Amino acid sequence: MVNAFYFNKKIIEDFRSAVNKSPIFARKNEYKLLYSKACVLMNRIDSAISYFNSHNEKPKSEEELILYFVEAAILKDGVYQMYENLFREKPPLIESKKWFIDAQTYGKKLFEKDVCPYDDTYFEYLRALIFAHPFETSKGCRSNRVFMSEGEIHMSPWVIANYNDPNREVVGLRIYSNKTLDSLEDIFIGFSNLKNYLLERYNLIPKLTDKINDIINSEKKTWLEHKIVHSNDFYLDLIEIENVYKERFIRIETVSDYKDIYSIKCDSKLNIESIDKVRFILSNKIIKAIDYLNNNENDNAEEELCFIYKRPKNMHEFAHYELEKIFTYLPNERAKIEIGSNEEWGLIQAKNFYSKYAYKYVFIDFENYSYNEIKTLVTVACILGFVEETKK
User: Fold this and answer.
1) pTM surpassing 0.90?
2) I need a surface site. Which of 40, 319, 348, 366 has the fewest CB within 10 A?
3) H or E segment to which residue 143 belongs
4) Where are the domains of the chain?
5) CB 259 within 8 Å of CB 308
6) How many Å apart are CA 287 and CA 282, to the nearest integer?
7) What pLDDT, in 10s, does the model give residues 340-378?
8) What are the pLDDT digits (tens) for 73-82?
């Protein structure tokens, strides 16, 4: 049997998936605050619904009831704040009156029709007395607490978790009022009504997910307005690709590595020939990437350009280790090498890789070439080696 009060985790997971599928929320200034609030919502709601799903039975102690209301307040406030941030308006449930209309005191209905509060108003009242403001919960001049008189103050010495109602499961609290100092009142609400109240608010999250997707689709529509027109200069094409990457918050490292190959100056016949071959190979990748970007297929564009990182399979022992250290330990610009430094070790591995493999395709002058030139030529050697293997 399906639990009628189960908080479906897929609802918050779908929201998380929508937020995380585009970099605009974490990277675009317009949405950064919204992204922070979404992260808070996701993590807090995760904890809250895990608690509710594992505590489906009525709280058995004062501590359990207080904790239940703490998690309830987190869920309600989180959903409402995110709704207001996304839609710039109050949630549609703020004037509903259905879950606490049958609150009782000593076996009789607590509210007459003309003084029945909104569900949110009464929930906030209960929250205040149960854990937030038990010593003084009042009716302000703008308060919707129609069941309290002007200037009235309520106090609660304890909550009631173990009251046995023969007709339904209830939770409640004891109230003192400054207007009736010689009397007290115990009020009760149905525990199932409280859970329904929370479920109704939790089920607003799909509206938030839809709004997130609307924002993403609007951004994508804007991106499509920037079309790249292929020129006869592949370096200029790469600059345009880089601009599009930046607009779409895509990491530009791959494009930067392409630009290095298309901008390197060569003084060696071997290097000129090898670089021309690689540029010819990569030109097709650039054209395909442009087509993908013009269709908003960003992942496909990046996958196409990542051909630049292909590595030959048939290389000497430790070749992959050497490549890792070359590209992680060598900065782009030379500096004074300290003995035992990562830079020194990266340069040693570059010389090893060159002497055992790269020399077949490129010439590297380790005394005069910049580290960026060394890394670019190593990349050229790897691409040519990979292409050579695939032709066999």
Assistant:
1) no
2) 366
3) none
4) 9-215, 227-391
5) no
6) 9
7) 899 999 999 999 999 999 999 999 999 999 999 999 999
8) 999 999 999 9
